[in-house]
Design goal:
The chain is of the alpha/beta class. The chain is built from twelve helices and eleven strands. The N terminus is likely disordered.
Length: 307
């Protein structure tokens, strides 16, 4: 680790408290990534997921973004092993090779899923002690967890419950962390703390998010989910203060289908947002060149999805 990196991590740890410090300096588990190919999930004769390729490299944050019902949570739960699927989901090391069974068999995975429910009458302290015993580690008790330690889970606010689940899912012993809307229900202060906490974490993180501003803050890699299909995007901010955009390339028919672009408003948006490298754009999306590179404002696209 370089001196500059060490100073940066020390500064971040002071900002975020003992929890971040424990993870940044005490992570000893192997860094394992995830690779999925031709993943398909069917239920009741209906295809719910159809993902040709998904790569979540070791030590990176891979974000799944999309509207409600797009398949983000379902894909995350499938990667966690909660459903039977066809295709392959493999672990990979930093060289892109499959690690030996001795490593994957001992690997611990943290997961914050929407379906999680804890024991209603147990106190926060009791829940943390039980998790410590199961995982063989100790979850750092920061000021927030200490404040609510004596409260029963059923008495916690929505934000406090979410923060407790978040703290459990990113405990230091985990090699991979699967986080489904981790900022859901958090107030503005905790929201920013969680974003920064995810951003600086050195482990493999797969995170479902609902808006592109959070993606811009933490993602090393991003996939847009639309009707169970995952398409890789580049989310970027060209100038400070400018609206975030995402860039995507592909055949026009594929983009139209995968981006769920069919309304007149979508056509108008595309005609405005196509990169300058594409010339002679027609008045209708169907008249554009066969292969496109699009740059679309994230806020505009979010508006389309919510219409």
């Amino acid at each position: 680790m370089s001196t500059a990196t060490a100073k940066k991590q020390s500064s971040n740890s002071m900002l975020l408290g003992d929890h971040a410090s424990a993870v940044l300096h005490n992570v000893t588990t192997p860094m394992i990534g995830i690779r999925a190919r031709n993943l398909k999930l069917r239920m009741n004769r209906k295809t719910l997921l159809q993902v040709k390729a998904l790569d979540c490299p070791p030590s990176q944050a891979t974000c799944l973004v999309g509207a409600n019902g797009s398949g983000k949570s379902l894909l995350l739960e499938t990667l966690c092993g909660l459903y039977d699927y066809s295709g392959t989901v493999e672990y990979m090391d930093e060289r892109g090779s499959q690690p030996p069974p001795a490593i994957t068999g001992a690997m611990k995975v943290g997961a914050l899923l929407q379906r999680f429910r804890l024991w209603s009458h147990a106190t926060v302290a009791e829940i943390l002690e039980l998790v410590d015993k199961v995982t063989g580690s100790r979850i750092p008790r920061d000021a927030i967890l200490q404040r609510i330690a004596s409260q029963q889970y059923r008495r916690l606010s929505t934000g406090e419950r979410q923060y407790l689940l978040f703290a459990i899912s990113i405990s230091p012993e985990m090699s991979c962390c699967f986080l489904d809307e981790p900022m859901l229900g958090l107030d503005a202060s905790l929201h920013e703390k969680a974003i920064e906490r995810i951003r600086i974490d050195p482990r493999t993180r797969v995170v479902c998010l609902h808006n592109f501003s959070d993606v811009l803050a933490i993602a090393d890699r991003c996939y847009l989910m639309v009707e169970g299909v995952a398409m890789e995007l580049q989310v970027q901010q060209v100038d400070s203060g400018a609206p975030a955009v995402f860039v995507v390339e592909g055949k026009k028919t594929e983009l139209r289908r995968h981006l769920n672009l069919s309304s007149p408003r979508s056509v108008e948006l595309l005609n405005q947002q196509i990169l300058p490298t594409i010339s002679e754009v027609g008045s209708d999306f169907a008249d554009t060149p066969p292969k496109l590179k699009l740059q679309i404002r994230c806020d505009e696209y979010e508006r389309i999805l919510s219409d």
